[in-house]
Amino acid sequence: MTEFSYVGTELDVFCYATNWKAYVRDRIRKYLMGQVLEPGAGIGAATQLLYDGTQERWVCLEPDLELARRIPVGSLRNPERCEVRIGTVADLEESERFHCVVYMDVLEHIEDDTGELARAAQHLKTGGHLVVLSPALPSLYTEFDKAIGHHRRYTKASLRAVAPAGLKEETCVYLDGLGALVSLGNRLLLHSATPSKKQILFWDRMVVPVSRLTDRIIGYSTGRSILVVWKKL
Question: What is the CATH number of the domain that holds 29?
Answer without folding.
Answer: 3.40.50.150
